[in-house]
Specification:
Protein name: 3-ketoacyl-CoA synthase
GO molecular function: fatty acid elongase activity
Number of strands: 15
Number of helices: 19
Oligomer: single chain
Organism: Dendrobium thyrsiflorum (Pinecone-like raceme dendrobium)
Catalytic activity: a very-long-chain acyl-CoA + malonyl-CoA + H(+) = a very-long-chain 3-oxoacyl-CoA + CO2 + CoA
Main location: membrane
Strand order of the largest sheet: 7-6-8-9-3-10-15-14-13
Structural class: alpha+beta
Radius of gyration: 28 Å
Length: 554
């Protein structure tokens, strides 16, 4: 059954490469047939178990809101049936009290109220964040990138030609930043170069963050740093503690090898630490070392990261202090994490390894689009019950339930349909089953920040989630201006929305990231106030040039 549905994830394109200049076919026109994988159609496959998981999250947190109104209604109905005189007589004349009963009642009442308030999760506020912008001397255009790569002497013409073609359709503009060390003739992935690069971006972002928030480094109680490929000893978190002379009892964590979605994983860890440690600040730093993603070999699957990854870093200050309520920008509403690592294809679709010449690189599988689509489908299906309006949930769940029942009925009369249903690969067009209703996620959020991986990924997401061009504006323009900055890209996108002055009080922001593993993670924020255009932002001198027209993008 898997082979039967495989063609649905493929699309073909015939490309004219011109006249062959050398070799046995010199003078002949050449054509290339490209076979690409695309995201699976969410209309065709939505698993009921992920909807159940989302409702489990909702019910486990909302049971009190469901039972308390019922108790109030019952109590009000009982009391309302009595007149004032009858109520007074029952309370004072027909009941007998002693001091022990009264004290026991008040003790139980105080204990119940105390347990309720102590068990409530602390609200987590985002005070502010900063995104590092490298100096202009590190800025390169796509043509300059290819020429500098050629001058390094590490690539043959076929590899350079392949990278040039990828860049033309990447959606990346001519003002991104890369460390100059990657163009040296020697090995750029040294500990010295890695430390220098990460130190410059991390300290630059943190200096701006502490200045904007008027917080001393010694006030920070929790520090979480994520960088996927560069993990030195001492760790990057230790570098920050040493540089800023932070306090000795700080809870510091360093996440490595967790890909482009690690920024939200770091947020989740920081949230848990703040829930367990009251009256505290937490700093989350997300970055990637471009010098360690750079590959100087000939394997095309490993050359792809060269075309997309660029320098960047974000630093976020979180707080659980109630006095930060007034100055905080956002409150954290939900985090939903999805991990597909139990599947072998998902596990290996983004994989660091050596090529045939033992040159280390990051290999990108052809299965990436399909694997990412399944992880995304699981994540947003789980998130739906937590954020969607009740009307959207009702229509979605009703159509999904009808589809499941109809499929099961067909399976009892048709063994082949039963096998297809068990594999989750039945074709709805062939069987006539009603398509699931895909909820309108634009009703749940005012702003969307999708990890700026590549133009093709953003195109497929826009198509499959039925989004508008304006919904993907922040992601597309971040990709164009800064490239793929890995786990920090969702913060450059939020900085874009703030620089445009679009975030208003009560607005909900959905951050969606995905990366190796394969993982797909969501974070939902609610704006505490109208966010004014920041005085310091990576977009300050260029935001008026965006959004760029479709024709200006690669």
């Amino acid at each position: 059954m898997a082979a039967t549905g495989e063609h649905t994830f493929l699309s073909t394109e015939i490309v004219n490469r011109g006249v062959e200049s050398s070799g046995p076919d010199a003078g002949s026109p050449t054509f290339v047939v490209r076979v690409r994988r695309r995201l699976p159609d969410f209309l065709q496959s939505v698993n009921l178990k992920y909807v159940k998981l989302g409702y489990h999250y909702l019910i486990s947190h909302g049971i009190y809101l469901a039972t308390i109104p019922v108790l109030v209604v019952v109590f009000s109905a009982e009391v309302g049936s009595l007149s004032r005189e009858e109520l007074w007589r029952k309370v004072w004349e027909e009941a007998s009290y002693d001091l022990a009963t009264v004290l026991a009642f008040f003790a139980v009442l105080v204990f119940t109220i105390s347990v309720y308030f102590m068990s409530r999760p602390r609200p987590i506020y985002l005070v502010d964040f900063a995104c590092f912008r490298p100096s202009d001397e590190l800025k390169v255009s796509n043509d300059e990138l290819i020429e500098l790569a050629r001058s390094s002497g590490k690539f043959d013409e076929d590899s350079l030609s392949f990278q040039r073609r990828i860049l033309k359709s990447s959606g990346i503009g001519d003002e991104t930043y890369v460390p100059r060390s990657i163009f040296s003739t020697g090995n750029c992935a040294t500990m010295k170069e890695g430390r220098a690069e990460t130190a410059s971006v991390m300290f630059g972002a943190l200096d701006e963050l502490f200045e904007k928030c008027r917080v001393r480094p010694k006030d920070v109680g929790v520090l979480v740093v994520n960088c996927s490929l560069f993990n030195p000893t001492p760790s990057l978190s230790a570098m920050i503690v040493n540089h800023y002379k932070m306090r000795g009892n700080i809870l510091s964590y360093n996440l490595g090898g967790m890909g482009c979605s690690a920024g939200i994983i770091a947020l989740d860890l920081a949230r848990d630490m703040l829930q367990a440690n009251g009256n505290n600040y937490a700093v989350v730093v997300s970055t990637e070392a471009v010098s360690f993603t750079w590959y100087a070999g000939k394997s095309r699957s490993m050359l792809i990261p060269n075309c997309f990854f660029r320098m960047g870093c974000s630093a976020v200050l979180l707080s659980n202090r109630r006095r930060d309520f007034r100055r905080a920008k956002y409150r954290l509403e939900h985090i939903v994490r999805t991990h597909k690592g139990s599947d072998d294809r998902s596990f290996r679709c983004v994989y660091q390894e050596e090529d045939d010449q033992r040159i280390k690189g990051l290999s990108i599988s052809r299965d990436l689009m399909e694997v990412g689509g399944h992880a995304l489908k699981t994540n947003i299906t789980t998130l739906g019950p937590l954020v969607l309006p009740f009307s959207e949930q009702l229509i979605f769940f009703a159509t999904l339930l009808y589809r499941q029942l109809f499929r099961n009925t067909s399976a009892t009369t048709n063994p082949s349909a039963a096998a297809a249903a068990a594999a989750g690969e039945a074709s709805d067009q062939d069987s006539g089953i009603t398509k699931p209703y895909i909820p309108n996620y634009r009703l749940a959020f005012e702003h969307l920040c999708v990890h700026a991986a590549s133009k093709s990924v953003l195109d497929e997401l826009e198509k499959n989630l039925c989004l508008k061009e304006t919904d993907m504006e922040a992601s597309r323009n971040t990709l164009h201006r800064f490239g793929n900055t890995s786990s920090s890209s969702i913060w450059y996108e939020l900085a874009y929305l703030e620089a445009k002055g679009r975030v208003k009080r009560g607005d909900r922001v959905w951050q969606l990231a995905f990366g190796s593993g394969f993982k797909c993670n969501s974070a939902v924020w609610r704006a505490m106030r109208r966010v004014k255009k920041p005085t310091r932002s990576p977009w300050n001198d260029c935001v008026d040039r965006y959004p760029v027209a479709e024709g200006q993008r690669n």
